[in-house]
Amino acid sequence: MKEQTGKRIVNGLDVRKLKETIQAIGKTSSLGDFRFRIANEWQGGGLNQSTVKASSGAGQQFQERDGKFTMQADEPPILLSGDKAANPVEHLLHALAACVTTAAVYHAAAREIPLDSVESVLEGELDLQGFLGLDPNVPKGYKHIRMNVRVTGDLSEEQKRKVVQLGCEFSPVYNMVSKAVPITVEVLG
Amino acid sequence: MKEQTGKRIVNGLDVRKLKETIQAIGKTSSLGDFRFRIANEWQGGGLNQSTVKASSGAGQQFQERDGKFTMQADEPPILLSGDKAANPVEHLLHALAACVTTAAVYHAAAREIPLDSVESVLEGELDLQGFLGLDPNVPKGYKHIRMNVRVTGDLSEEQKRKVVQLGCEFSPVYNMVSKAVPITVEVLG
Q1: Of A50, A90, A157, Cβ closest to residue B36
Q2: Which of A56, A101, A146, A159 to mutate to test the interface with B (most CBs of B within 10 A)?
Q3: Are B141 and A172 in contact (CB under 8 A)?
Q4: How confident is the model at residue A2 (pLDDT cuts 50, 70, 90)?
Q5: End-to-end CA distance of chain A
Q6: How many CA atoms, within 13 angstroms, populate the side-chain half-sphere of residue A24?
Q7: A54, A99, B57, B139: most buried, per Cβ within 10 A?
Q8: pTM attached to this predicted model
Q9: How far apart are CA A144 and CA B181, in angstroms?
Q10: Residues B86, B90, B91, B97: what is their CA dihedral angle, to the nearest 10 degrees?
């Protein structure tokens, strides 16, 4: 999957389809409007579960994805729960790593740059004084996220840096975490 | 789990331990320093997998969590991959929902407010023109996230709103997504 197979498959992606997608959205911008949805349910203590709901995009509804995937979150014993799953801030690191990798792989494919591997290690520093409300000056979230990325393939060091830079530049999650996203919260009665 | 059991368990959490944790970190702030880590590996196309690594906090290392959980991410066929898992921006919604729910439940427990249920539905609007580099003025991430939360329990409407507000105010992921977090990226040779 990770190798070029001769035709137009780069990084496991059909480059012709990728370019057709780019052209179609470039021509009809409304095709680029996507909606992603999940539903989450508390299961007691620090445990809760999300279910992916139907998404939409490119003028289509993807009803077949409704309920297809579930993800749990929990907290370890030091944070008073049963450690049945990664915790929310670990899930955030997963979302970030997954998104930067995917953006790097897709943008490399669009430029017909084949990659052998992409690996990353992420660490987030969190001062619990923020979450616990002990010090209003301490950020509630990570103070800092460190991400080390290794790309291999028949590439120069500069090309490897370029691939990672493309990943960060175009990754939706990287952009959301490093900038600010408006969130509207409604409490249902 | 979700019910009070008489003693000091509220919302499935040991309130005495929760208060001891708050006091201990209030007294020795360095106990609040936590580090969470994951490693991610590309698996071809839009598919990749994260593994939770050992975390640390409260002056301890949690080596037993090293490798305990894996999470995959993939993209649906419309986005050119095999749809083997939720995609990165759906994982972000999961992290956000999980974190707001957990923060609401923990902060309610600390105030000895028992909850029966917490459910939320989240939707993110994403314009693919950003990710594809078609329009530099279009955000790469969600333009907007909508979150509807329903809390049930023997609570007034005002108390329900207060519980959700505590969840948002103290949730690390809510704070990270609605504000900005510095991310340092290093490309390994």
Answers
A1: A90
A2: A101
A3: yes
A4: very low
A5: 49
A6: 15
A7: A99
A8: 0.96
A9: 6
A10: -130
